[in-house]
Design goal:
9 helices; alpha+beta; two-stranded antiparallel sheet; flat; Chitinase A, domain 3; about 260 residues; four-stranded antiparallel beta sheet
Length: about 260
């Protein structure tokens, strides 16, 4: 009996942990990606993700449990009901939010103008293309290609190495690179190869931003849209729960009594 009760507790704990990991968005604070172009917003939600298939080890353990006579039908029925409540509740929440939440370009621009001081740079920054190569020969080859200033060559090089423009602040890079990028003179052009314990670095300086300059709307666009979306989502979620509490008062009463 003690073993059986212990097994039930273990199953319950594992099941609840699984639910909390899969459906952690039930509190309404999960963040989907948001973009707003042309006055409309698109919310990207991965609807295709389900539970991953059980690994072979789990299937073997399940077979062993059934063969050994371990049965917890009553407990499993309760757990499945909890799973159903979480699953359907989150599907409803997703549909409800997606049909109501929109972040527009006008809202993003207005937020940027009203809060422009928040986007003032506190340090010098530099936007670069940063290549990290395993050998000095590879790094030199990349530098030579960059110095050709050929659009097609550059595009191919960026794709091959998975490099995109990156804005760097003091302290983001190893000390030797930091000294070059934020030294007494402003960095220009293609730099490197520079050897560190990470490998050989080649950088092309695209733009230098002095301290106290303002980050452009293009730089903070996603940051602002996400902030507005989260704020709207919290408000809508609170209103929804208040409304549902009035429609289904017995649910909140039972939950409170149940601890």
């Amino acid at each position: 009996m003690i073993v059986a009760n212990y097994s039930v507790r273990v199953v319950r704990f594992a099941f609840l942990v699984m639910l909390s990991l899969i459906f952690g968005c039930a509190n309404g604070t999960n963040e989907e990606g948001v973009t707003a172009r042309g006055g409309k917003a698109t919310v990207f939600v991965d609807r295709g993700k389900g539970l991953p298939p059980a690994p072979a080890s789990q299937k073997l353990l399940y077979r062993a449990a059934v063969t050994s006579g371990l049965h917890i039908e009553d407990e499993m029925e309760s757990l499945l009901l909890q799973y159903q409540e979480v699953l359907l509740g989150n599907l409803f929440l997703e549909h409800y939010m997606n049909s109501r939440l929109v972040v527009t370009m006008d809202e993003i621009r207005e937020h940027y103008v009203a809060n422009r001081s928040a986007y003032q740079r506190k340090n010098d920054q530099v936007r670069v293309l940063h290549f990290l190569l395993p050998s000095v020969d590879d790094a030199t080859s990349v530098k030579v290609s960059l110095l050709e200033y050929d659009a097609a060559v550059r595009s191919s090089l960026l794709r091959a190495h998975g490099v995109v423009p990156t804005t760097i602040s003091p302290g983001d890079m190893p000390a030797s690179l930091n000294a070059i990028l934020f030294g007494s003179s402003r960095p220009r052009g293609v730099l490197g190869p520079i050897n560190t314990h990470f490998g050989f670095h080649v950088l092309e300086v695209l733009e230098f931003f002095p301290k106290a300059s303002f980050r452009g709307l293009d730089e903070v666009y996603d940051e602002i849209s996400q902030s507005i979306y989260r704020s709207k989502r919290r408000a809508v979620y609170t209103q929804l729960l208040d409304s549902l509490s009035n429609v289904y008062p017995n649910v909140t009463t039972q939950t409170t009594k149940g601890g």
